[in-house]
């Protein structure tokens, strides 16, 4: 899907392709400066992140630079999270046609992200491991931000003026009615854990397997109803830029998107990351 990050402030609202085209023709502003920071706290150590601010789409060509940031929240072991951190970007880039222009690269990126997530899941399941992971991968190229995600690790965008946008969809069965319908329509069962005596406890889960998420990478043992196909969103930043906050559910269970954004406005990126986690 595509849309402008601050669509309500554009007069008139313009299609994303038009905005990107203006930037590529040079009548937008120059490439933004990307600053980043990271911080983490995990008792079990199943969360991993990826920071690659110096990627080159065309080897040796600085004008083809882009940045990648990702969060992987593993469960039932660390194997899927580690594998995804090491392989996901490689699989995405292998799905991008060679020798294309930047305009075509940005247009092909959403489809390449879907292919990369699926390829990573297939390759991991061949390892015979049963762990799983959420994955939220963010590609920043100029003023264009493309986000792909499975699970409940979230990415938000905070732009000047205080507008906070959610760039991901939480794939929790408890909150996502569309995903519950998808699972049940394909033959899965969605229900809570049933204790002796018929008492139901905890969040909604997909059976077999009992996973609370409807989309992930890995989770070989939970059946075909948990899929690796990501939600993808591509937005164009305003010329004033913006701040992205990418984090696993440990943050979002405690903070709303607005609270997290407000907590670190005006702060350097590294300090902002530490403050959000704290």
Automatic annotation (TrEMBL):
<keyword id="KW-0378">Hydrolase</keyword>
<dbReference type="GO" id="GO:0004722">
    <property type="term" value="F:protein serine/threonine phosphatase activity"/>
</dbReference>
<keyword id="KW-0904">Protein phosphatase</keyword>
<protein>
    <recommendedName>
        <fullName>protein-serine/threonine phosphatase</fullName>
        <ecNumber>3.1.3.16</ecNumber>
    </recommendedName>
</protein>
<keyword id="KW-0479">Metal-binding</keyword>
<feature type="domain" description="PPM-type phosphatase">
    <location>
        <begin position="26"/>
        <end position="278"/>
    </location>
</feature>
<dbReference type="InterPro" id="IPR036457">
    <property type="entry name" value="PPM-type-like_dom_sf"/>
</dbReference>
<dbReference type="InterPro" id="IPR001932">
    <property type="entry name" value="PPM-type_phosphatase-like_dom"/>
</dbReference>
<keyword id="KW-0460">Magnesium</keyword>
<dbReference type="InterPro" id="IPR015655">
    <property type="entry name" value="PP2C"/>
</dbReference>
<dbReference type="GO" id="GO:0046872">
    <property type="term" value="F:metal ion binding"/>
</dbReference>
<keyword id="KW-0464">Manganese</keyword>
<dbReference type="Pfam" id="PF00481">
    <property type="entry name" value="PP2C"/>
</dbReference>
<comment type="similarity">
    <text>Belongs to the PP2C family.</text>
</comment>
């Amino acid at each position: 899907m595509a849309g402008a990050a601050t669509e309500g402030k554009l007069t008139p609202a313009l299609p994303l392709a038009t905005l990107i085209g203006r930037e590529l023709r040079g009548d937008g502003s120059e490439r933004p400066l990307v600053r980043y920071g990271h911080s983490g706290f995990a008792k079990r150590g199943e969360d991993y992140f990826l920071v690659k601010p110096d990627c080159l789409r065309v080897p040796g060509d600085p004008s083809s630079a882009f940045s990648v940031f990702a969060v992987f929240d593993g469960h039932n072991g660390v194997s899927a999270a580690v594998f995804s951190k090491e392989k996901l970007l490689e699989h995405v880039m292998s799905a991008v046609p060679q020798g294309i222009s930047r305009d075509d690269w940005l247009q092909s990126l959403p489809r390449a992200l879907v292919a990369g997530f699926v390829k990573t899941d297939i390759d991991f399941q061949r390892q015979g491991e049963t762990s799983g992971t959420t994955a939220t991968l963010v590609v920043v190229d100029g003023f264009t931000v493309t986000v792909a995600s499975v699970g409940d690790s979230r990415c938000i965008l905070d732009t000047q003026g205080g507008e906070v946008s959610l760039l991901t969809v939480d794939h929790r069965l408890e909150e996502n009615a569309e995903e519950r319908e998808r699972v049940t329509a394909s033959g899965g069962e969605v229900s809570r854990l049933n204790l002796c005596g018929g008492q139901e406890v905890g969040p909604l889960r997909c059976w077999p397997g009992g996973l609370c998420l409807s989309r992930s990478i890995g989770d070989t043992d939970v059946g075909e109803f948990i899929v690796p196909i990501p939600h993808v969103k591509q937005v164009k930043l305003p010329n004033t830029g913006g701040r992205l906050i990418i984090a696993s559910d440990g943050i979002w269970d405690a903070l709303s998107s607005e609270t997290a954004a407000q907590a670190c406005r005006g702060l350097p990126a590294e300090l902002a990351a530490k403050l959000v986690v704290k």
